[in-house]
Amino acid sequence: MSSGEITYVTVGPVSAIPPGMGRAYHVGPHRIAVFRTRSGRVFATAQRCPHRGGPLADGMLVGEQVVCPLHAFRFDLHTGQCEQSHVCPVQTYPVDITPEGWIRIGIPTRFRSSEDVSPLLTSC
Amino acid sequence: MTGSPALTPPALSVQREGRPRLVVVGNGMAGGRLLEDILACDPQRFAITVFGEEPYGNYNRILLSEVLNGSQEAQNIFLNPLAWYAENGITLHAGRKVVRIDREQRRVYCEDGQSEPYDLLVLATGSKPFIPPIPGTTLRGVFVFRTLDDCRHIASYARQCRRAVVIGGGLLGLEAAKGLMTHDLDVTVVEMAPYLMSVQLDEPGGRVLGQTIERLGIHVRTATTTKEIVGHTHVTAVRFADGTEIPADMVVIAAGIRPNIDLARECGLACERAIVVDDQLRTSDPNIYAVGECVQHNGVVYGLVAPIWEQTKVLARVLTGSDPHARYTGSRIATRLKVMGVDLVSLGRIQDVQSSDEVVQFSEPARQVYWKAIIRNGRLHAACLLGDLGPADQLQRLFHSGAEVPQRRVEIFFPPAASAAPVTLADLPDAQQICDCNGVSKGTIVAAIRAGKCTLPAIGKATRAGTGCGSCKKIIKGLIECFADSVTPDPSEDWYVPAVPMDKPTLVAEIRRRGLKSVSAVLQELGHGEDEKSKNGLASLLKSLWGKEYIDERDARFINDRVHANIQKDGTFSVVPRMYGGVTTPDELIRIGQVAKKYQVPMVKITGGQRIDLLGIRKEDLPKVWADLGMPSGYAYTKALRTVKTCVGSEFCRFGLNDSTGMGIAIEKRFQGFEFPAKVKMAVSGCPRNCAEATVKDVGVVATEGGEWEISIGGAAGAHVRKSDVLCRVSSREEVLRIIGRFLIYYRDNAKWLERTYDFVPRIGLDKIRDIIVHDKLGLGEYLDAEVEKMAAAYVDPWLEREHPAYEGQFDGESRIPLPMVT
Ligand SMILES: Cc1cc2nc3c(=O)[nH]c(=O)nc-3n(C[C@H](O)[C@H](O)[C@H](O)COP(=O)(O)OP(=O)(O)OC[C@H]3O[C@@H](n4cnc5c(N)ncnc54)[C@H](O)[C@@H]3O)c2cc1C
Ligand code: SF4
Ligand code: FES
Q1: By Cβ atoms counted within 10 A, which residue in B76, B125, B593, B628 is the most buried?
Q2: Does ipTM come in above 0.90?
Q3: What pLDDT digit, counting tens, does each position of B543-559 carry?
Q4: Where do the Rieske domain residues begin and end (chain A) (predicted)?
Q5: Do the chains contact at B554 and A7, CB–CB below 8 Å?
């Protein structure tokens, strides 16, 4: 179940998310938004928008980006980067789909040390 | 590779390649521009780290007024994208406030104890709004106006408000007032001084401005001191020193600014009104510099951007060593401003008059023009121009050059014909700066025009020109006329939505021809991309085109339209049940009260449209709340018929000529659930006293003497305060319903996405609309009536989805998943 610093947790079947929509899960301490695009791919990001905490799972998907429902900032589901390119990125999580169609989300099991990445940037 | 022990917080970066470490605190107008100027001098010189308290890259603060009044999108005011910082090797800590400077260790500290060492430090912390020490400033609904987030908060709160008070009648207060007008609010500006804009204008000038602004529908109270903002949890009124009081749903405080100097003062840097700097922008610590609104140079603190551009240029030269002798000697303040569409030029300090000065004045009250110049020792010392900027260029030249003014003083304003040789726009050199706010030259604008940007908004988008104070728009228009004849205009202006390159008639024809019934099908076959505005717009169009055949893809809808409630800033929702004509019953009120208690609704509010709003409901509670209420949806969250406001009318009112409540109820029942390109509000008054304010609605009905009803359309009560145009008079309820129905369908079919009736009616023309709707000259009547029938028959209360959710998880909150134990 555990791969390196990441533990994969099953949150539910792909069919629980209608195509083109998102759904929010609360996995341990992590609030995660899981999206299923119309092209059939599944992505996971933090549920809280880095701007003012908007619920991203309630956002609208445009292609492989999500538009936050509060102020319409737009985030790339692959990288978490904000399209407007002046807002901090949203945290993304690795996703694995089992052959039976279950969604598994990779949850970090230990916090990264300050050498890995500047703590100022990760928390903003 | 484990983390350092918690006792000594780790340094955030190490000295990169032995380059000196430059840390900048504050990523606003000054901080951002300084970085650009430093890179222009010597991109390799420093390892640069920037801290900014706001969670963004830097943006153009002076455009916030435009964001608030809706003429600019927030995303278009950013100056440098995050990628720019990365490309230039600058470490940006956005959303991080520096709370302490250790000058001995040469380190700055953030709130969480993280720190960053520096060799050179620049403070560019700007200012904060001044909050007067009166009771009530912490109530809900009280705002300041300084940051992008302030702007968003004001705009989103304004939606539930009708009356706003702006405290402060200076530049910022007036900008805020203008912004609030565009949000359909009734705005009062309160100023302590006897006249508006007392920094830039003298008393007669301020009075002229006051009159101009009152004519725009804003109330102005000068010589008025605010004593208290009144309310329990949120604002309800504002009380003044003379004991009078005016009701208010929101208050914006724009009573001046105070430089952010806490950080500097606490580490012992010399501060007076602001951080004291010398001619090289150095503070009392030789390793620390300061720039922008937080500095005091030669006793002067500046509050505009022009001096900041001069300061950053000098500081960049000093820091990089490209000109170690560069000096900043102070700025002569010359500003061109646009206040509520009123042009204003202010040079120097107009209040500063000595007995030996000559004063030249010209005023033309009928056109609200006021000019004044102060001449000291034969030179232009200060001036202000209001309403007509005819002599602005000449005055600015005199002011900056310090040249002698003409012997015949009147020539300051009216130069003799010969010397005012007209220069055509085509002759201007390419390098000539046209837009001072954004520093855009003629060359850049002409290049954009040649690339097909042939409208003001298109040029604004491409170059930012004209998107600041707007005073250069006339010149840009002239440039378009000069250079645009040989190019084709940007066609995207006419598209119904951005992602499909077609105007509405072409798009409708194409959709019909191909039988496209879902948003994804339209985007796939006709689109060239995808964005949220297009998805919403197409969903609305397809629904009206296909009715029951429309394939309703819920992911093409905004969250509000997915769960039939209005999302709030904390992710909860608001619920407004339908109350036909604003009429309710004791039982209904008791039930609403019980629901509010049961779900611990944090706020129950009466809306401007006479309905009850339950705010703060969790998504998962929506179906239960609707079921307990047992009332249909009030459609307060979407582009549809909102409310029909009514007065009591002949049933109870002693003036009433006809049954306005009955009429309002009939209209609301008939057209409930009809969706349009934008929201539609209506009202019915029982006599011309018009208590329901029917003449400022999209559709208004007023009972007149003789049993008739007067129907008017295209009204609004906001920035575009627009009295509706009278369409016709009819005598029966049936006729009222028929005329309104025809107009609504015609509007639905022909309006652009998000075009309100107050733009639509003048665009099409009242006479044409009357011909079509009342006289049926195009023979559309039967079709329009049939469409009304079709839409009325298709109405289903969306709140019934509580029993059969339209898709999996529609009303689910966050599902909890336990975290497995890690081995
Ligand atoms: C709505 C509005 C309209 C305006 N219109 C005009 C106009 O038309 N013409 C004109 O010339 N001027 C105008 N101004 C004034 C102009 O915006 C300011 O003069 C200018 O922004 C000052 O620049 P600055 O960099 O000194 O301060 P700011 O732009 O305020 O930048 C300071 C930045 O530092 C950050 N900061 C502060 N303390 C810390 C800390 N301890 N740690 C980290 N970050 C910190 C702040 O969050 C802020 O982002 C307007 C201002 C407003 C608000
Ligand atoms: S509009 Fe006329 S009828 Fe209606 S409440 Fe006012 S005075 Fe009475
Ligand atoms: S909270 Fe997401 S864009 Fe503002």
Answers
A1: B125
A2: no
A3: 888 888 899 999 999 99
A4: 9-104
A5: no
